């Protein structure tokens, strides 16, 4: 009975993780289109017409921050973040599982702090405006708690996957 509940919770986390991952990847692609167009426009204006727009660098920077922070959750889901695995690779299966669980727990703690502090930071800058395009600064800063939330979900999914018996992961 308890095992079936855990299995359903794992599958729910896995489905939610996959849906978030698809939405994130779509968002990154969508954000990359204006980024490329703005940078091309700025380069053309600067080097061909010798009249660089003052707003292009700021908008490009905010788009790049959003893209980078969103993409971190997709990398987390796929296990593509940089890691020092030489100790884990030398460990036996039981110790490897303990090391992985410990690492995921520490990563989860870090991203939980990032989420909470990102929310605080976003509220702190809520009344500020950006210098050249005059948008509210909470918009660029919101990328931090959003990324924190996405990373918490992906880390919980990976943690859950480590805790599941092998036969449940294969189904």
Features:
single chain; 171 residues; mainly alpha; 7 helices; elongated
What does this entry show, briefly?
The chain has 171 residues and is an all-alpha fold.
Question: Could you explain how this protein is built, in words?
Answer:
- By secondary structure, this protein is mainly alpha-helical.
- It is built from 7 helices and no strands.
- The protein has helices at 2-47, 56-78, 86-90, 93-124, 138-141, 143-163, 166-170.
- The chain is elongated and about 65 Å long.
- The two termini are 18 Å apart.
- The model has no long low-confidence stretch (mean pLDDT 90).
Q: How can the largest sheet be summarized?
A: none
- What helical percentage do the residues reach? over 70%
Low-confidence stretches: none
Number of strands: 0
Mean pLDDT: 90
Count every helix, treating DSSP H or I runs of 4 or more residues as helices. 7
Query: Which word captures the global form?
Result: elongated
Through-space gap between termini:
18 Å
Order of helices and strands: HHHHHHH
The helix/strand class is mainly alpha
Rg measurement, Å: 20 Å
Secondary structure elements and pairings:
Blueprint: H1 2-47, H2 56-78, H3 86-90, H4 93-124, H5 138-141, H6 143-163, H7 166-170
Helix pairs in contact: 1-2, 1-6, 2-6, 4-6
